[in-house]
């Protein structure tokens, strides 16, 4: 009944005909064959809307595809051979983007070309609306300008064995790790555009103008590393990552750092001018990039402040719980006890977030347990208690460095020392989805947003409500900032 009503209304609009018999035929045909699938019926209506004659409509109704997979296959096969690459790129972005994209953002993304330093206007679709024409029923656009796959089943089909095993649709098949690689490469190519080589914006007006001129800039800035971590191993992707971190791309790097730190327009000027590539590589969990940076002469920034608050690469990794990276940094000579501008050590940060494995590694390598912060002299154990982690505080206070490791490591040069094998590397050291956690956050630190001290307790839509469990105790929770 619902499908029949929809088909009658939509079909009447799309065909601009008043033939009641045809309306009835379409309604009854779709209702009887849809098996209750709204998405299937909507796709057929879209296909029927392109029929120019009643005879064409009737012929199409006689050959309706069975199920959604066959429907999606039919829609893809109908694409012009010259549009295959473009349609596949549309599907890749919409299937694997981290957040919903606007039509204008997707329009910009489709114009990115591998290895190019500028966006060629001649390679851009003439209108963003062309995207909707190319995607047909596989896409949907919202009233606020966002575009998405029309149904979750579209994504399921794009990564299924059905699409790969059909020679006619195989060119559109998507592999998750390869798709993330493609998106990471596009984002990095965008961040390395020559237009961004002028360095950070000098005024708020320039900053806002840049965001308007480069509609994909905020997405590329915030999510390229997410896609990179999800991507298949690839030399080209590694090269692009190191290109962004290279000394001769310092202006592009700083342009990225500025946007990354500016989570609202008025924060355009809060980014650290002394930012270092290895700090951000460590913060973002980019293991291979950290290794590459450590192997280069400009990897000597290992103990240099890299964040707004003077945090070192070990600070960055400790906040996020990237244990393997911490071990690599220490083995290369990083000081696990070096404090930031506010005398906060990596152990303070790890203690407040209950990073148990991180805390053990730092303590084993001589991180000072009694270090006091610059506000009112709080120790790492104090930070743990203020965060509600009494067990962490006791562990820090009772830790015996002598029992944990040999004396030969204490007081000597850490450069070249091998990381301890006491604890397993199997604990996850990358966090894909940021969630606010319970932690102590001193007043002298500027909070990036209310999310640092807030959490969603429930959502109400109309008369429907959903309440969430707010017992955040998992080590996967993160209340820190990458910046």
Automatic annotation (TrEMBL):
Biased composition (Basic and acidic residues): 403-413
Swiss-Prot/TrEMBL ANK repeat ranges: 309-341, 342-374
Ranges for region Disordered: 403-428
InterPro entries assigned: Ankyrin_rpt (IPR002110), Ankyrin_rpt-contain_sf (IPR036770), GPIID_WHD (IPR054471)
Keywords: ANK repeat
Domain named GPI inositol-deacylase winged helix: residues: 86-164
One Pfam family cited in the UniProt record for this chain: WHD_GPIID
Family annotation (SMART domains): ANK
PANTHER family linked to this entry: AMELOGENIN, GPI INOSITOL-DEACYLASE
Entry protein name: GPI inositol-deacylase winged helix domain-containing protein
């Amino acid at each position: 009944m619902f499908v029949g009503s929809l088909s009658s209304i939509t079909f009447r609009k799309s065909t601009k005909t008043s033939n009641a018999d045809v309306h009835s035929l379409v309604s009854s045909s779709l209702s009887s064959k849809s098996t209750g699938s709204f998405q299937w019926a909507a796709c057929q209506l879209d296909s029927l809307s392109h029929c120019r004659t009643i005879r064409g409509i009737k012929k199409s109704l006689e050959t309706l595809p069975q199920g959604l997979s066959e429907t999606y296959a039919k829609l893809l096969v109908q694409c012009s051979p010259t549009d295959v690459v473009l349609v596949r790129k549309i599907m890749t972005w919409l299937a694997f983007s981290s957040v919903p994209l606007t039509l204008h953002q997707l329009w910009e993304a489709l114009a990115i070309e591998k290895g190019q330093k500028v966006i060629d206007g001649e390679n851009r679709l003439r209108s963003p609306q062309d995207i909707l024409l190319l995607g047909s029923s596989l896409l949907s656009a919202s009233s606020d300008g966002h575009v998405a796959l029309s149904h979750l089943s579209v994504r399921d089909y794009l990564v299924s064995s059905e699409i790969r095993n059909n020679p006619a649709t195989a060119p559109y098949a998507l592999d998750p790790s390869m798709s993330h690689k493609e998106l990471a490469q596009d984002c990095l190519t965008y961040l390395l555009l020559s237009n961004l080589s002028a360095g950070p914006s000098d005024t708020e007006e320039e900053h806002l103008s840049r965001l308007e001129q480069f509609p994909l800039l905020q997405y590329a800035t915030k999510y390229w590393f997410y896609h990179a971590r999800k991507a298949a191993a690839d030399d080209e992707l590694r090269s692009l990552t190191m290109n962004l971190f290279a000394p001769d791309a310092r202006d592009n790097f700083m342009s990225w750092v500025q946007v990354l730190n500016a989570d609202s327009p008025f924060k355009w000027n809060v980014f650290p001018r002394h930012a270092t590539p290895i700090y951000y590589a460590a913060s973002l969990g980019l293991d291979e990039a950290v290794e590459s940076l450590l192997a280069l002469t400009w990897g000597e920034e290992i103990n240099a402040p890299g964040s707004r608050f003077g945090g070192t690469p070990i600070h960055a990794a400790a906040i996020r719980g990237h244990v393997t990276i911490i071990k690599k940094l220490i083995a290369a000579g990083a000081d696990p006890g070096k404090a930031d501008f506010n005398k906060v050590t990596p152990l303070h940060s790890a203690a407040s977030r209950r990073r148990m494995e991180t805390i053990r590694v730092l303590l084993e390598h001589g991180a000072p347990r009694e270090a006091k912060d610059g506000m009112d002299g709080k120790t790492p154990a104090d930070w743990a208690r203020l965060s509600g982690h009494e067990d962490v505080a006791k562990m820090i206070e009772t830790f015996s460095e002598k029992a944990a490791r040999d004396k030969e490591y204490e007081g000597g040069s850490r450069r070249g020392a091998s990381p301890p094998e006491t604890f397993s590397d199997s604990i996850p050291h990358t966090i894909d989805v940021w969630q606010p956690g319970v932690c102590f956050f001193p007043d002298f630190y500027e909070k990036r947003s209310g999310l640092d001290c807030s959490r969603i307790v429930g959502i109400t839509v109309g008369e429907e409500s959903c309440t969430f469990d707010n017992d955040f105790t998992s080590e996967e929770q993160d209340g820190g900032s990458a910046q």
